[in-house]
Design brief:
Length: 305
């Protein structure tokens, strides 16, 4: 409950920032509605993430799968209905909000019936600890968005829209694969957290074993994606995106590093050294931007890849 209180504080800060941006910008009434609908939808999604963290602590990750299905199925149905009946742009964001709200209600129900009863008792020292530990991770998420999107920014500035599409299609697949892999590895979080407070030697021993296993599995996965890349691109995006195959084959090698970085991330958070992550991302962002400036004008989407 203290984590939820901190989360609600962040929500108020976010809404204040969004309001200032809207007041300074030139947005249509429809766009303003969509921005606020999205803000509240992500707010409910963040509440769900705290409940999911609780389930992981009890090593009951199956509830996360249930909640994901409970969100995805209604959302897909809503999107189909919106498209079929042509309900308009704003309806997409209303559907996103309703799906997140429904998942949040299920979160509360599962937590109250299967785990703990809510006791809203404020612990000021705990609130201070949560704020101190979480703001670094929040900044990391913001920098990560720049790290992910800097290639698209430079591509849009320097080359034709077709090149942007080729890169984005391949890039979006890599992001999806990385997210799935990160979700699978998140099951290690509870075990690593326990070992961090019991025996550091055991923690690093388990990390070393996990590192070797993940490296081997990822390498085999990359080889499969390399061989099947034309089929994957043609099946998902259509034959007109066949030029995205080269970008996908280059980007797929990044999985060897990004998936292992997720494992590295979990260990650092387990030993309360997440501030070190903040050094990694800006360094990568600077290098990525400089390489984009040199490679994209010459090679386009392949250069960005």
């Amino acid at each position: 409950t203290n984590a939820l209180i901190v989360r609600w504080f962040y929500m108020l800060v976010s809404l204040a920032v969004i309001t200032v941006i809207i007041l300074l910008g030139n947005f249509s009434a429809e766009m303003i509605w969509c921005i606020y609908l999205t803000a509240f939808a992500w707010s409910f999604a963040s509440d769900s993430a705290i409940h999911i963290a609780l389930y992981k602590a009890f090593e009951k990750m199956e509830y996360e799968a249930i909640l994901t299905l409970f969100f995805q199925i209604p959302y897909v149905v809503f999107l189909f209905l919106i498209s079929y009946y042509d309900l308009g742009f704003t309806s997409i964001f209303i559907a996103f909000l309703i799906a997140n709200l429904a998942r949040n209600f299920l979160d509360i129900l599962i937590t109250r019936t299967r785990f703990i009863k809510y006791r809203f008792k404020i612990h000021w020292s705990l609130l201070g600890y949560l704020l101190k530990e979480s703001y670094v991770l929040g900044l990391i998420v913001i920098v990560m968005q720049g790290f992910i999107n800097v290639d698209l920014f430079v591509l849009k500035s320097l080359v034709k829209p077709a090149e942007v599409s080729m890169f984005y299609s391949a890039h979006s697949l890599i992001i999806l694969i990385s997210v799935i892999s990160a979700s699978l590895m998140s099951v290690l979080s509870p075990a690593f957290s326990r070992l961090a407070h019991k025996d550091r030697d055991d923690l690093f021993s388990e990390y070393e074993k996990s590192f070797k296993i993940v490296t081997c599995v990822t390498f085999l996965l990359v080889m499969q994606f390399m061989l099947l890349s034309p089929l994957i691109i043609r099946t998902i995006f259509g034959s007109e995106f066949i030029n995205a195959v080269n970008s996908f084959q280059i980007l797929v090698f990044s999985l060897i590093f990004t998936i292992l970085f997720t494992l590295f991330d979990i260990v650092l958070v387990s030993i309360s050294k997440q501030n070190l992550l903040f050094l990694c991302l800006p360094a990568g962002l600077i290098v990525r931007f400089l390489l984009d400036i040199f490679l994209i004008p010459e090679y386009g989407a392949v250069g960005a890849s």
